[in-house]
Amino acid sequence: MNNTKKHILIVEDEQHLAVGIKFNLEAEGYRVTHVSDGPAALAAVENAVDGVDLVILDLMLPGMSGYTVCETLRARGWDKPVLILTARTLVEDRARGFDAGANQYLTKPFELFELISRVRNLLTHYRPQAPAAPAVRQFEFANAKINFDTFEVEVGDSPVRMTQLEMKLLQYFVQHEGRVIPRAELLMNVWGMPGHARTRAPDQFLRRLRKTFEPDPAHPRHFLTIRDAGYRFVSE
Q1: Which residues, other chains included, contact 67 with Cβ-Cβ below 8 Å and sequence gap of 6+?
Q2: What is the pLDDT of residues 12-34, one digit of tens each?
Q3: Of 44, 117, 154, 157, whose CB is crowded by the most CB atoms within 10 A?
Q4: Which domains, ranges and CATH numbers included, belong to the chain?
Q5: Helix, strand, or coil (residue 125)
Q6: Whole-angstrom Cα distance, residue 118 to residue 67?
Q7: Which candidate, 56, 42, 60, places its Cα nearest to that of 120?
Q8: Angle, nearest 10°, between helix axes 38-47 and 66-75?
Q9: Cα separation of 87 and 25, whole Å?
Q10: 30-48 mean pLDDT
Q11: Which pLDDT score is estimated for 194?
Q12: What does residue 82 show for φ and ψ, rounded to 5 degrees?
């Protein structure tokens, strides 16, 4: 693949780290720009003559956090992929990053080959959601009631405890109801992993959703596996 037209913006205030990433991405054939703070990142995206195809974004930046940078880009309608690269490792940080609009989340220290793999994957397979639907806050189907803001779930009249990742997957299914979602898309947008990653996580989590919501998990009506294509959620 010819990468010369792909423009990557690195937003990183650790100069030595940014220089190393820039060098290696340029060796892969990408065009790379580096800035050190949030306002400069917003200006770089807005003013790039040939556009920016991907942003590698640190969270702890001078003047403006990476969260705010990502939220501002999304609010302005910029729909290209964002890969957060940060030393923040808490689940809460990861969730906030995805909520801000990031597509993938990689923690420092990291392996260079994994970063390059994620960059290649995002630039090759990422497709913006068109048009982006407002986030679903509450949803009901079958005999289930879900509040995504408070994490309250009821099936029948019984409360159900669900993990943050289970809720994120469920919300993604709800927001894309009826559409066949490829496995790679789930890995990238829910787990923040490369789409080609070898993991059984989607299947394992789908079984947990079926066990929670399906009257007969062995014969699902709502959370469907489409052979050789992906997964599909139908509420009715």
Answers
A1: 59, 96, 97, 100
A2: 999 999 999 999 999 999 999 99
A3: 44
A4: 7-125 (3.40.50.2300), 138-233 (1.10.10.10)
A5: helix
A6: 20
A7: 56
A8: 30
A9: 20
A10: 93
A11: 67
A12: -125, 125
Quick one: tokens of 177? 């109801």
The answer to whether residues 235 and 142 touch, using CB atoms and an 8 Å cutoff, is yes
d(CA 130, CA 138) in angstroms, rounded, equals 22
Write the burial class of residue 185 (CB in 10 Å: 0-12 exposed, 13-18 middle, 19+ buried). buried
Global pTM reads 0.58
The pLDDT assigned to 236 comes to: 82
CB-based burial label for 8 (10 Å; 0-12, 13-18, 19+): buried
Phi, psi of 81 (to 5 degrees): -70, 145
Model confidence pLDDT, tens digit, residues 120-140: 988 887 766 544 455 678 899
Query: In the structure encoding, which two tokens stand for residue 164, read together?
Result: 């943050």
Tokens of 97: 């990053």
Contact between 148 and 171 under an 8 Å Cβ cutoff? The reply is: yes
The answer to whether the peptide bond before residue 62 is cis (omega within 30 degrees of 0) is: no
Tokens 């090759």 belong to 124
Whether 222 contacts 228, CB under 8 Å: no
